Amino acid sequence: MKPTKDSILKDIYELGIRHGDTVHVLADLLKVGYFEKSREYTLRAWIDILLEAVGEKGTITIAAYNFGFLRFTGFMRKNRFVFDRYCESGSGSLSKAFVNDERAVRSKHPTNSIVGIGFNAHRILDSHDHNALSYAPIGEIIKLKGKNLHLGTVDSRNVPMTFHYSEESLGVTLRHPLSGFTQQYFRDDQGNIRLFTRYGLGGCTRNCVHLHGLLVANDAIQYGYIGRGRSAVIDMKKSFDIIYDLMKENWNYFRCSDPRCLSCHGRGVKKVVKVPVLYAKTILGGLRNRLMKIDKN
What we know:
- The protein is an alpha+beta fold.
- The chain has 2 domains: 254 residues, no CATH class; 32 residues.
- Helix 1 runs parallel beside helix 3, helix 3 crosses helix 4 and helix 7 crosses helix 9.
- The relative contact order is 0.14.
């Protein structure tokens, strides 16, 4: 049966979203399968559905990231892209629709902005600027007993947003081998164009699929279908406590098995040596695979 607005709302409520909730959304609308007569109308309908689900006192937030450019290449980009309230999000079509909604509030962080609509949007986002860490708004959502809605995104790739906030809280993001490698231009409160350097990156999530069992065991997640998409609602405080404690005790719990992964295997005091070596291995590995493919043909 084709999903409708009413059936989508019913599915959302059955997963545990209620009026007054603060909900951070991670969405893959294609998997959910609810569409209207046009792309624009569909995205508008989705915003209305989510806001109706949380009601007048509720809040919806969603990532609106843009990832900047490699450090020291900014001289080529200064007049092409400067972050502001309406600059395009790189976090998917629903995120772009939220950015373009006049009711929305967008944080001022030059690379990791969050956009939101609702009762607590200003509280969550107003202090998130170039002086703040990348995932700081997640901490505010946790304080509000918020929920993380995975809308068609229950898979081996997408993880609770509290994973990256746990990394940030423990200083793990600052030890990422590529911390400080990306920059972005932005306008300050006086309208001047300034250069922002991003320190602190979220790490590899390949090994986070093992979290699902822990979330179930601690009653921190509820699964179901929204439309045709496998979805979930995660209690952000419970999931943060679980992930933070695991990471604090043993960060290697989340380390993936790919020896070429910079995030997992390029850290530590020897990263000045490790990072170039890992880059070389990645390049040579890609070249080898290419040669093998040619040889087979």
